[in-house]
From TrEMBL:
InterPro entries: nSTAND1, P-loop_NTPase, TPR-like_helical_dom_sf, TPR_rpt. Gene3D superfamilies: P-loop containing nucleotide triphosphate hydrolases, Tetratricopeptide repeat domain. Pfam families: nSTAND1 (PF20703), TPR_8 (PF13181). Residues 359-417 are annotated as: Disordered. Keywords: Repeat, TPR repeat. TPR repeats lie at residues 863-896, 1059-1092. Residues 387-417 have a biased composition (Polar residues). Residues 8-363 form the Novel STAND NTPase domain. It comes from Bradyrhizobium barranii subsp. barranii. This is Novel STAND NTPase 1 domain-containing protein.
Length: 1135
């Protein structure tokens, strides 16, 4: 037996019409299809991807028809096979003329012929196909079969014109096979039969086309899945025809692998999507594996003149064959070729996951223009020429007068290179609705050669992962209008480089499909932000920069995902510039300072010029502060960077002499106060607000009742109150009283303004200040007064809303005020009233959030309301209800964080909600769930702290997050044993260590308790683990902290902590059998505790008695030698 010239197994592609002799396992299907086609002259072959619809029709059905098996029809057929694409009528016209020409052995149809027939179909009515056949194009006694392959393309390419063409095509075909007025299609004068292949998931879309649902109902054939015996016949049948041998063991193994991959007989399971996908991939993978084994066996036989034998030893596995094949071809390309392969495959697939991924057929090149004028006949080119030149495309309207349209001259040679050859199929594709093309998507003309190399490797004459329609001759490039497509969707799911699963060699791949989905999402986000001028910074900007560098997007690529190529390019470029500007403002401020220097000069020369320069300088400084203020709130600028900017801006403000109207300087000072407040620098915030007050007081003396002056006073006074309140914190009663006095002064000013303008214009300002006063009263413990203030605030905002019922901001403020009132009622133990206010707030915020999903403010307020309700439930010890509310908050905040991952305004509340949920779950005893929340909070706090190492507040919050995580990890460890316990304890120690080494500064007193507690907890863990040396080190670290602070005259709390550390160290020394050293430390602890007991009436005496008992027990104990490996380590060593 000799080697076959062509592979008997097609691989991923469908069987071709001339391969019917290789098509096995479907005899019963063909019989049923012939029967149904005969009844109605219409057959819709349905099935999911991979069931072999096209192969079944083109080999099985076509062969049966030509054998004369269709009842009532001859064996003479004109078979017209086409895909509708974006121009269904044009493609039908081309296919009809090409099929007729093939039978008559005439030249290929011209563009004029195709266009003329297409216009007949579109303009002259539903019977034009019958008329065309009567005109002699269909031979006497012959039948016409029209196959519309991949019928779903009618829906994929649709726009307004496409829907009309789709309806026209179906009307034409249905009327042709069964003209109106006839009792049955068999009475038709012209025997026309219609078959379509359609993916079953598009069946519902067919209802959109008039007449089609009825036809499908009458003539549907649902392609069944091949059974095991049929698959065996599909393996052995082609081998017998081609003279091959197949080892029985290989057949058994292959069938078993197919059964494991997608069982033939299986009950419905829970993962139906996966089962359906694997069923669709089963046959293509089988054919591909057999094709690859034939390739290897054939090469071996040709070289050694052996018989071709498909052996089990050559089999690499059903799935691994495809992955290995793809990797071998990919590895054969150089680095630039591999990069281009990624671009090509990403261009012809779409979807965000393997589950929803589908093929995306794409035209190869740019439109080849058809002649504008041929003789005295004009051709309407259609389609816009504008905008294409700006994207580097050829205009679609060009003149090629008097040039040949034939493919060859009469002497059989190719036409002269000077001629422009335009074939009819190019003209058809030009009239389609598809606008993008592979060449432009992948980089334009400079990338053409690279794209061709990829198609050579992966295309129809290579490994057949990609197809081109029409298929080019071997060694030739595809025509410009050829459609490039994935050979089969199984490739998307099974080639791991494309799908992103673990590959044959064990390497984890992210997958080109996911890369394309992420790029699309990024681009769409950039388009939206560019249109809104919401400039990007931080990680988002870095992602955009890296995307542009790696993916090198093109205008054609961008059109798939929102376009706006030039706009986005400028936007990213300007964002980069602005980021650099923020971190290098010295030059910009230098220009402003030079302008201010000119103020002094021109002040002596020309007053008007000096005034103009003043306004220029102050306005510029205000604009820059506005920018830096947004960055501070979002967390996009470091503390040091913001401080540098504020320092320079402050210098500018100080150099400006106070003008006649200081309002711009007052507003500038208040902006300083806002930014310093957002940075947590409340002393500087207070100083800036006082500077504003100092500037406005002279105006007040002159115009005590002027509305603008009062507004400047009000805005400065409440900022002073804010700075005092936040600087002292909620535990500093003196600061609270001082801030209350300042807020009350601001309230008086707001009431005066409201009296001067009694139209309710200041209701919102009154709501604002009453809420501030209510908050201070709450922290002073004046709950009744606080509730009354919040109720008054609610009355004012309701008044404002009554005058402006559609004002969304007022609705949001009303809901926020209800939240504040609810918390106060909860503090008063009025649970019913609190819940009522919370519910109204949530209902209002839910409505606002649903109104505009892009508006983050109501989303953030809604999340905050859910978290506050969670706090309310947690205070009532209704912990399960609290967790539900926290989870609602987390869901909203997570979505906001995903949309804008670098925005600190969303990261901080999300971390807080995770911490609150963790606390509630911890109290419920659900420690594993609690740990997950605390771990997420820790990650978010790390993200914030890493962006600004100079921010004490961020570092302190991260330290607390570390400790919370470590505390719960320690508790979880108690429920485990073995390796699990050690892993959790190790994570806890690491977190405590991070809190000490990376976060807490012993020079910040408020953080020292965290340092001390972390050392103690590390020591406790080391004691549990039996690591006495490290326990000693940890306790010694705690002792050092406590001793330093206690010696500086700190409170008795630190004296007590010092005694605790001595006690802990002594316990270690006892375990190490250093009894005398242990007794000394117990006595030190006893002296400290005794001193504390003498000064208070607390529990210190109980502790003193415990220490005495320990000392006495050790004194009566026999002397023991310490273990050799348990020597006392030096204090301060790392643990």
């Amino acid at each position: 037996m000799s080697a076959a010239d062509k592979p008997p197994y097609p691989g991923l592609r469908p069987f071709e019409r001339n391969e019917s002799h290789l098509f096995f396992g479907r005899d019963h299907c063909v019989d049923e299809m012939v029967k149904r086609l005969a009844e109605r002259r219409f057959l819709a072959v349905l099935g999911s991807s991979g069931t072999g619809k096209s192969s079944l029709v083109k080999t099985g059905l076509f062969s049966a028809l030509e054998m004369g098996l269709l009842p009532g029809a001859s064996s003479h057929w004109l078979i017209v096979d086409f895909k509708p694409g974006g121009n269904p009528l044009g493609n039908l016209a081309w296919a009809l003329l090409e099929a007729e020409g093939a039978i008559r052995r005439t030249s290929a149809p011209s563009a004029l012929e195709v266009e003329a027939l297409q216009k007949r179909f579109k303009q002259d009515g539903r019977r034009e196909l019958i008329k065309w056949c009567r005109e002699g194009h269909l031979a006497e006694g012959a039948n016409l079969l029209v196959l519309v392959d991949q019928f779903e393309e009618l829906f994929r390419y649709q726009n307004a014109e496409g829907r009309e063409d789709a309806q026209a095509l179906i009307t034409l075909l249905l009327e042709s096979r069964w003209p109106r007025g006839l009792a049955s299609p068999q009475r038709a004068e012209v025997p026309i039969y219609v078959t379509i292949t359609l993916r079953s998931e598009y069946l519902g879309a067919c209802a959109l086309i008039w007449g089609l649902p009825e036809a499908i109902n009458e003539g549907t054939y649902l392609t069944p899945r091949m059974k095991r015996l049929e698959c065996e016949e599909a393996i052995l049948g082609p081998a017998r025809v081609c003279g091959l041998d197949v080892e029985p063991q290989l057949v058994i193994r292959l069938l078993n692998d197919m059964a494991d991959f997608a069982p033939w007989d299986v009950e419905l399971g829970k993962d139906q999507l996966t089962r359906l996908a694997r069923s669709a991939d089963q046959l293509p993978l089988m054919q591909h594996a057999l094709n690859q084994m034939w390739q290897r066996a054939s090469a071996r036989a040709k070289g050694n003149e052996e018989e071709i034998l498909l052996k089990l030893a050559d089999y690499r596995g059903l799935e691994d064959e495809l992955d290995d094949h793809g990797e071998r071809i990919f590895a054969s390309l150089d680095s630039s070729g591999q990069a281009m392969a990624e671009r090509v495959f990403r261009a012809v697939t779409q979807g965000t996951t393997v589950a929803n991924a589908i093929r995306r057929p794409t035209r190869y090149g740019r439109d080849v223009p058809a002649p504008q004028q041929l003789g005295d006949r004009q051709i309407d080119q259609g389609g816009p020429a504008e905008n294409e030149q700006s994207q580097g495309r050829l205009s679609s309207v060009q003149s090629y007068e008097g040039q040949s349209l034939g493919r060859q001259s009469q002497n059989g040679k190719l036409c002269d290179d000077q001629s422009q050859i335009v074939d009819a199929q190019s003209h058809v594709a030009q009239l389609s609705h598809s606008e993008d093309n592979l060449i432009d998507i992948c980089g334009g003309e400079p990338s053409r050669n690279a794209v061709e190399r990829v198609l050579t490797a992966f295309g129809p004459h290579g490994c057949q992962f990609l197809t081109a329609n029409p298929k080019p001759a071997d060694g030739q490039s595809p025509s410009e209008n050829a459609v490039i497509d994935i050979a089969h969707e199984s490739l998307i799911r099974q080639w791991k480089r494309l799908s992103g699963q673990t590959g044959l060699r064990g390497k984890q791949l992210r997958g080109w499909l996911v890369e394309e989905g992420d790029a699309a999402s990024l681009w769409q986000g950039l388009v939206q932000r560019a249109k809104k001028n919401e400039w990007i910074t931080g990680r988002t900007l870095e992602e955009a920069r890296q995307f542009c560098k790696k993916d090198q997007p093109t205008p054609a690529w961008s059109q798939r995902y929102g376009g706006e190529f030039d706009l986005v390019n400028r936007f990213v470029r300007d964002s980069i510039w602005r980021e650099r500007g923020i971190y290098g403002l010295g030059g910009m401020f230098l220009a402003i300072l030079l302008g201010l220097a000119a103020v002094g000069y021109y002040g002596k020369q020309q007053h008007n010029v000096a005034t103009q320069l003043f306004h220029l300088a102050v306005t510029s400084a205000q604009e820059l502060l506005d920018i830096i203020g947004v960055q501070v709130v979002r967390g996009d600028v470091t503390t040091s960077g913001a401080e540098e900017t504020l320092k320079v801006a402050s210098t500018i403000a100080q150099k400006v002499a106070t003008p006649e109207n200081p309002a711009p300087l007052i507003e500038l000072a208040n902006t300083f106060s806002d930014i310093y407040g957002d940075m947590g620098k409340y002393g500087e915030a207070l100083a800036s607000a006082k500077r504003a007050m100092d500037l406005v007081e002279p105006l007040r003396a002159v115009k005590p009742d002027d509305k603008e002056v009062l507004e400047l006073l009000y805005n400065s006074k409440w900022r002073m109150a804010d700075a005092i309140y936040f600087r002292g914190g909620v535990t500093d009663r003196a600061a609270l009283e001082q801030s209350l006095a300042a807020y009350t002064e601001a309230q008086t000013l707001a009431l005066r303004l409201a009296a001067l303008v009694p139209d309710g214009a200041h209701d919102r300002a009154l709501m604002f200040i009453y809420r501030k006063i209510g908050t201070v009263h709450h922290h002073l413990g004046h709950f009744d007064t606080a509730a009354a203030e919040f109720q008054t605030a609610l009355t004012y905002i309701q008044g404002a809303l009554g005058k402006n019922p559609d004002n969304q901001d007022f609705k949001r403020e009303q809901a926020v005020t209800r939240r504040a009132l609810a918390k106060e009622l909860a503090a008063k133990k009025d649970s019913v009233g609190a819940m009522e206010q919370f519910k109204m707030a949530v209902d209002a915020l839910t409505a606002l959030a649903g109104r505009d999903l892009s508006n983050a403010v109501p989303q953030s307020n809604l999340a905050a309301a859910h978290r506050e309700i969670g706090d309310f439930y947690q205070a009532l010890n209704e912990l399960d209800a609290a967790v539900v509310e926290y989870e609602k908050a987390i869901k909203i905040q997570t979505a906001m964080n995903v949309r804008d991952p670098t925005n600190a305004s969303w990261i901080v509340p999300l971390a807080t909600s995770h911490e609150a949920a963790g606390t509630a779950l911890r109290r419920l005893g659900k420690l594993t769930d609690a740990l997950a929340h605390f771990e997420r909070a820790r990650i978010l706090r790390e993200q914030l702290a890493d962006k600004d190492r100079a921010s004490h507040s961020r570092q302190s919050n991260l330290g607390r997050a570390y400790i919370q995580f470590a505390d719960v990890a320690t508790e979880v460890a108690k429920t485990l044993d073995g390796a699990g316990r050690d892993e959790r304890l190790g994570a806890a120690v690491e977190a405590y260590r991070s809190a000490i080494d990376d976060i807490f500064d012993v020079e910040i007193p408020r953080n020292n308790d965290g340092v001390f507690d972390s050392y103690i907890k590390i020591g406790d863990i080391r004691m549990q683990q039996g690591d006495l040396a490290k326990a000693y080190d940890a306790y010694s670290g705690a002792s050092e902290i406590a001793r330093t602070i206690a010696q500086n005259g700190e409170s008795a709390v630190w004296q007590e902590r010092l005694a605790d550390s001595y006690f802990k160290i002594a316990d270690v020394l006892v375990a190490q059998k250093h009894l005398s050293d242990a007794i000394d430390l117990y006595r030190k602890a006893l002296r400290v505790v005794t001193t504390l007991a003498a000064k208070s009436q607390g529990t210190e005496w109980i502790r003193a008695e415990e220490l005495n008992r320990k000392i006495q027990a050790l004194l009566t104990k026999p002397a023991q030698s310490p273990a050799d490996d348990k020597a006392v380590p030096s204090v301060g060593a790392k643990n």
